[in-house]
Amino acid sequence: MQDKEEERSLVSVENRLTKEGFTYDFQVTDGRLHTLDPNLTKSYAPEDVTIVDFYRFEGESNPDDMSILYAIEANDGVKGTISAAYGTYADGDTDDFLKKVEDLGKNLDKKMK
After folding, report:
1. What is the Cβ-side half-sphere exposure of residue 8, based on CA atoms within 13 angstroms?
2. Rounded CA gap, 62 and 80, in Å?
3. What are residue 71's DSSP bridge partners?
4. What DSSP element (H or E) covers 6?
């Protein structure tokens, strides 16, 4: 059995997600999510993707140094990850995009009830 710290390390979570098929790295540019793989150049609008899961990480030396790793699946089956920093180091474009995706997911949940 893994201990809690090891289980929650960024590297171990990324390795597990890769094994589960989340093999692409994403980046947000100009309001769209882009794959960073030169062999698969795709981009997605917020309504084209779903946040499957997310993991929060705190910096070892500074609790304000936090980030979240998102596992994302696009409507065409492409799966990958993107990380977003908290607070001072946050990237506004990435935060805005992920907020839109989260809001769309909440709306879908409401429609299904």
Report:
1. 11
2. 28
3. 53, 81
4. helix 4-7
pLDDT tens by residue, 43-55: 999 999 999 999 9
Range of the domain at 105: 4-112
Each residue of 53-97: pLDDT tens digit?
999 887 666 656 678 899 999 999 999 999 988 766 667 889 899
> Total structural domains in the chain?
1
Residues 6+ apart with CB under 8 A from 109: none
What is the DSSP track for 35-96? E-BTTB--EE-GGGEEEEEEEEEE-SS-TT-EEEEEEEEETTS-EEEEEEE-GGG--HHHHH
